[in-house]
Design goal:
Layout lengths: L8 E7 L2 E7 L8 E6 L2 E6 L21 E6 L4 E9 L2 E8 L15
Antiparallel strand pairs: 1-2, 2-7, 3-4, 4-5, 6-7
Length: about 110
């Protein structure tokens, strides 16, 4: 979920138990982005520092610099493995834990 579709994102399966969410965050630095997980909700927030553009006159400003918030509900057993920002794309890697198959022998007692 998010507001008005910004920033655009992809979700892909990267391995049998791995997934990747990629957000297009051109112009944002690592320090401008916060990623949190609370109660299975992955929240990604971006806010650029208010820098004064002294001496710069924009004839057209088409690169979005507005704040954003995107949230994703994680399925049970899915955890965030890490995040990397490269070439204007934020990649958030997710892993689904595979439950161990444990064989348990139950002893029967006389009542």
């Amino acid at each position: 979920s998010g507001n008005d579709g910004y920033p655009p994102f992809n979700i892909e399966q990267s391995s049998e138990n791995g997934f990747r969410i990629t957000l297009a965050v051109a112009g944002f630095r690592e320090a401008d982005i916060a990623i949190t997980v609370e109660d299975r909700q992955l929240m990604i927030r971006g806010r650029q520092a208010d820098e004064v553009d002294e001496g710069r006159v924009f004839l057209h400003r088409g690169i979005a610099a507005r704040a954003f918030q995107r949230s994703f509900v994680l399925a049970d057993g899915v955890e965030v493995a890490g995040a990397v920002l490269e070439n204007g794309l934020l990649h958030v890697d997710l892993n689904r834990a595979v439950p161990e198959k444990i064989v348990q022998t139950i002893r029967i007692t006389k009542g």
